[in-house]
Amino acid sequence: MVKVVKRPEVKGLRQFYLVEVLIGLYTTLRHVIRNLIYPEKLPTVIYPEKPKPIPAATRGLHRLMKREDGSPRCTACMLCATNCPAFCIHIKAAESDDPYIEKYPERFDIDLLRCVFCGLCVEACPLDAIRMDMPIISFTGYTRQDFILTKEKLLDHDNSDFPHAPNYNPPKPLDITHGPHHNEFLSRIKK
Amino acid sequence: MDPITFEVINIVIVALLAWGIPLQFIPLMIWLERKGAAIIQDRIGPIRANIGGIRLFGFLHNIADVIKLLFKEDVIPNHVYRFYYFLAPFWSMTIALIPLMLVPFAAPITIGENVFRFQVATYQSGILLLFAITGLGVYGIILAAWSSNNKYSLLGGLRSSAQMISYELGMGLSIVAILMTYQDVQIQNIVEAQSGFLKVFGITFPLPNWGMFLQPIAFITFVVAAFAETNRTPFDLAEGEAEIVAGYHTEYSSFKFALFFMAEYANMVVASIVIATLFLGGYQVPFFTTEELRANPQYTLTAMLVLGILTFLILGFLVYKRAKYISVHFPEPLGKKEYFFISYALFVLAILFVILIPVVLNLEYNDLASQIIVAVFQLTMILAKASIFLWLYVHVRWTLPRFRYDQLMNMGWKLMLPISLLNVIITGIVIAL
Ligand code: SF4
Ligand code: SF4
C-alpha cells in the first residue's frame, strides 16, 4: 500500500516566511550574544593540545597480548583472519617449540588502510590474544607501509599503559590429551 | 583654486574613497563571515594562523587565503569559450565597484568659494542609473555560466538569471514607492530629505525621518530583493552546491575564482550602503540635520567621542572575555598576551576619549573645521549603518536554509510583486490626498 504524504501547504502571507525568519534570527542572535559574553561556555575541544579523554570502550589500535614471558599469546588459529570482513589480517603460522603450544604466528600483519575497526577480530579470538583497547584513534604515516601493523608493532606495548584493561593471565594451555585436565577442559568449553 | 581643477581633485579623491570602501570591506567581510559563523554555531572560530604569534582574531587567515589562491594552479579547461571565460570574473568585479560612485558619503562642504562634494557623480537620474548598473552584475554570472561550457555552470547561470528577473521587479517597484514619497530621483536629495524627526500628516514621531519608517513595506521587499540580487543565502540558488557543484564558478580556479568570491562580497557592501542610503537616511545622523550639527561643532565632536567610548568599551570587554577564555583553556595560551594587550589598549583609548571631552568642549572652531568634523561623522554614520546590513547578511546566511526553486519563484511573483504594486498604489493615494 502506498501512503502519500502531503507536503504542508504554505499559503498567503506566510509564504513570505517573515515571522519564521525573524524567529530563526532571534534564535541565532541568542547564541551570538551568549557566545560573545560567555566564551567560557563554548563546548569547543582544544584538540591537539587538550584532547578529550577517550572512553575505555573505544575501539582503538590493535595490539597483541603477551604471555608472561613476552611471547605472543596468539596461537595462529586464524579465527580472526577468517572473521575479518575486510580481509586485512594476514597471519603466517609457524610451529612452536613449546610442546604445549601447537603454533605461533611468525608474521601477523594488519593492514590499517583496509581495517574498518569493526572489532570482529577481537570477538573471534578464543584466547583474548588480540585487543583493540589502545587509546590511539588517530594515526598518521607518510607511506602505505606505515599503515601496516606488523607483529613487532602489535607487541610493542606495555601492559601498565592500560590500567583500565587489566591483562588477566589465562591459565597455562592445558594438556588435553591425558590426565585430570581433560574433564576440566570439557567443562570449560561447555561454559 | 579655479573651479575645474578643484572639481577634478574632488572627483579623484572621492572616487578613490568610493572605490576603496568596498575593497577594504572585502577582507573584513570574509573575516566577519568566518567569525560570525563560528559564533553562531557555538565555535571559537579561526585562531591558529599567526605571524610571529600575532593572530589578530583570525584575521591573518585572509592573508593565508590570498597566498593560497595566488599560488594555486590556474586551470583553464579546453572546452571553454576563452574570451567570455576571461571576461566574466572581471565583469563581475568591475560592475560591483561602480555603483558607489553615485552614492553621497557626506553632506557637501564649502571650501572658499568651491563646493567639495562627497559624491563622484551627481546625475539628474542618479537612482535609476544606480539600479541600471547593479542590474548588469548578473551578466558576469551568465557569461561565466555559459562560457564554462559545463552543464552545472549553465544551470546555475539560468537559475540566477531567472531569479534576477523575478526580484528586479519587486526591487524596482519598492524604489518606485520611494521615488513617489520623496518626489525626486537624485540620490543626494533623497538623503537630504531624510534628516530630522519623522513627520507624518503633521504629527512628529520620536523616530528619525528615515525611509524605513515612511515605507516599511518597500523597505522589507527591498531588503529581500537585495539578498536575492547579491545571490546570498537563502537565495544562493546559483551555486547550490548540493545539486550543481558550485554553479557558475565550477570551472574557475585560482585568482579568477577569487575575483568572483570578492565580487560577491563587494556586491554585499554596495547593497548594504544602498539600503542604508535609501532607507536609513544615508549619511544623516539620526534626529539631527546637517545644519544643526555644523552650528555646534563641539557637541558634534563630543557625540562622536561618546559613541567611540561606547564602542571601545564594548569591544574591549568582549576581547577581554576572550583573552581570559584563551588563557584558561589553551595549555600553551595562543595569543593570550596579544588579546590582553588589545583589550587594555581599547580601554585606554576609551579613557583617552573621556579625557578629550572637556578639551573638545572648550576649543574654538572655524567654519571649515566644523564642516570637516561633520563630514567625518557622517562618513562613519553611513558605514555604521551599512555594517548593520553586512552583519544581517552573515546572520541570515547562518540561520536560514536555501529556498527551493519553486518557493523562490512563488515568493517573487505571487508575493513580492503584488505587495510592492499594492504599496505603490497606496502610496499614490496617500500622496494625492
Ligand atoms: S577490526 Fe574488523 S576489519 Fe579490523 S582487523 Fe579486526 S576484524 Fe578486521
Ligand atoms: S589473534 Fe586470536 S583469533 Fe587471531 S590467530 Fe591469534 S589466537 Fe587466533
Write the layout of secondary structure elements.
The complex is a heterodimer of chains A (191) and B (433).
Chain A: H1 18-37, E1 63-64, H2 79-83, E2 89-95, E3 103-111, H3 120-124, E4 130-131, E5 148-149, H4 151-155, H5 181-190
Antiparallel strand pairs in A: 1-4, 2-3, 3-5
Chain B: H1 3-40, H2 61-71, H3 82-97, E1 109-111, E2 114-116, H4 126-147, H5 151-182, H6 187-192, E3 197-200, E4 203-208, H7 211-214, H8 216-229, H9 241-244, H10 254-279, H11 290-295, H12 297-329, H13 336-361, H14 367-397, H15 405-432
Antiparallel strand pairs in B: 1-2, 3-4
Helix pairs in contact in B: 1-10, 1-14, 2-10, 3-4, 3-10, 4-5, 5-8, 5-15, 8-10, 10-14, 12-13, 12-14
The complex binds iron/sulfur cluster (2 copies).
Provide a brief overview of the structure.
The complex is a heterodimer of chains A (191) and B (433). Chain A has 191 residues and is of the alpha+beta class. Chain A has helices at residues 18-37, 79-83, 120-124, 151-155, 181-190, and strands at residues 63-64, 89-95, 103-111, 130-131, 148-149.
Structure description:
The complex is a heterodimer of chains A (191) and B (433). Chain A has five helices and five strands, in the order αβαββαββαα. Chain A is α+β, with helices and mostly antiparallel strands. In chain A, strand 2 and strand 3 form a beta hairpin. The radius of gyration of chain A is 27 Å and the shape is elongated. The two termini of chain A are 48 Å apart. The mean pLDDT of chain A is 80. The radius of gyration of chain B is 23 Å and the shape is globular. Chain B has helices spanning 3-40, 61-71, 82-97, 126-147, 151-182, 187-192, 211-214, 216-229, 241-244, 254-279, 290-295, 297-329, 336-361, 367-397, 405-432; strands at residues 109-111, 114-116, 197-200, 203-208. In chain B, 69% of the residues lie in helices and 4% in strands. In chain B, the strands form two sheets. In chain B, strands 1-2 form a two-stranded antiparallel ribbon. In chain B, strands 3-4 form a two-stranded antiparallel sheet. In chain B, strand 1 and strand 2 (114-116) form a beta hairpin. The N and C termini of chain B lie far apart (49 Å). The mean pLDDT of chain B is 85. Chain B is mainly alpha-helical and 433 residues long. Classes of the chains: A alpha+beta (191), B mainly alpha (433). The interface between A and B is medium-sized, with 26 and 28 residues. One iron/sulfur cluster (SF4) is lined by residues 74-80, 91, 124-125, 127, 129-130 of chain A. One iron/sulfur cluster binds next to helix 2 of chain A.
